[in-house]
């Protein structure tokens, strides 16, 4: 099976390339291919002739999306539209990675694939619009919504990830404030990559939520990171309102992944176990 991974420099793209090493994988970074170049994308697909295209490329700086909506829609919506058309024309499978931020956070229980989206910010609207184009234009598609990603390669567009940022601040002795009223499920990209690899082999096309199990606030995620790493920084909990980010965030965006789990018998390990595995892989896990 020939697989092309777009956004291969990012943390999920990096882990997908590693997970799919038994396939004929072509990793493409932004330097190799600008997803906003529709002609370039079509030319690449003609040359590579992939059976599966996995799109992890996105403009995911949530606050910057508010101030630069044109770029957000160019990357997250219109480039995805053109990619979906190109994949449909070549009759290849498109796996498109989306986000929990398509939801508004008003639901008290985990969101399922059947729940109506209600994005609160430009990023969420642009990603949801991209989803709609994939569903409408490419018959053989998987749309994978996930949340709170962190991985060994870091986030290429963000200069690291949440876990690494927390560790860096703690080691520098910096007082740390983290919101305690936004609840989600942090997801280790190595686990997500393994899940996507199993999903594409099912050919059960459609929309799926995939993340690690359980839920926590960003503050609890940070506190657990410090506990596992053996660090004791000055950590305080604040509200979303007090933090004052530019973009609105859903206060609850936990995704239920039962549909995926029932299909593949992979119920995804708890986020605490995944975080421990990540810290061990990074050499940051405290000795018992």
Descriptive overview:
- The chain has helices spanning 11-19, 38-48, 62-67, 69-90, 122-137, 162-171, 189-200, 218-229, 240-243, 258-264, 271-282; strands at residues 2-6, 24-28, 52-55, 93-99, 141-146, 149-150, 176-179, 183-184, 187-188, 206-209, 216-217, 235-238.
- The chain has one domain: Rossmann fold (3-Layer(aba) Sandwich).
- It has a six-stranded parallel β-sheet with strand order 2-1-3-4-5-10, with helices on both faces. Strands 6-9 form a two-stranded parallel ribbon. A two-stranded parallel ribbon has the order 7-12.
- The model has no long low-confidence stretch (mean pLDDT 95).
- It is of the alpha/beta class and 288 residues long.
- The chain contains eleven helices and twelve strands.
- α2 (38-48) runs parallel beside α4 (69-90).
- 45% of the residues are buried.
- α1 links the parallel β1 (2-6) and β2.
How many separate domains make up the residues?
Answer: 1
> Largest sheet at a glance?
6 strands, parallel
C-alpha termini separation: 43 Å
Number of helices: 11
Helical amount: 40-55%
Q: What is the residue-averaged pLDDT?
A: 95
């Amino acid at each position: 099976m020939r697989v092309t991974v777009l956004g291969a420099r990012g943390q999920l793209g990096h882990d997908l390339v590693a997970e799919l090493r038994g396939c004929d994988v072509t990793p493409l970074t932004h330097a190799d291919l600008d997803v906003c170049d529709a002609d370039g994308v079509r030319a690449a697909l003609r040359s590579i002739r992939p059976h599966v295209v996995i799109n992890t490329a996105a403009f995911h700086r949530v606050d910057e999306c508010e101030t630069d909506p044109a770029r957000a829609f160019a990357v997250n919506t219109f480039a995805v539209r053109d990619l979906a058309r190109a994949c449909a024309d070549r009759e290849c499978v498109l796996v498109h990675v989306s986000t929990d931020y398509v939801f508004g956070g008003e639901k008290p229980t985990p969101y399922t694939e059947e729940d109506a989206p209600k994005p609160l910010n430009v990023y969420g609207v642009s990603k949801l619009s991209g989803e709609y184009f994939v569903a409408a234009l490419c018959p053989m598609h998987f749309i994978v919504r996930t949340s709170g990603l962190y991985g060994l390669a870091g986030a290429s567009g963000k200069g690291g990830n949440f876990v690494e940022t927390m560790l860096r601040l703690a080691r520098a002795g910096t007082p740390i404030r983290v919101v305690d009223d936004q609840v989600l499920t942090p997801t280790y990209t190595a686990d997500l990559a393994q899940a996507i690899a199993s999903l594409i082999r099912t050919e059960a096309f459609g929309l799926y939520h995939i993340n690690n199990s359980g839920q926590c606030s960003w503050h609890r995620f940070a506190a657990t990171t410090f506990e596992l790493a053996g660090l004791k920084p000055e950590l305080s909990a604040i509200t979303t309102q007090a933090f004052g980010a530019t973009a609105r965030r859903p206060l609850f965006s936990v995704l239920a992944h039962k549909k995926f789990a029932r299909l593949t018998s992979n119920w995804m390990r708890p986020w605490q176990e995944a975080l421990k595995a990540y810290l061990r892989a990074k050499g940051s896990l405290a000795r018992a």
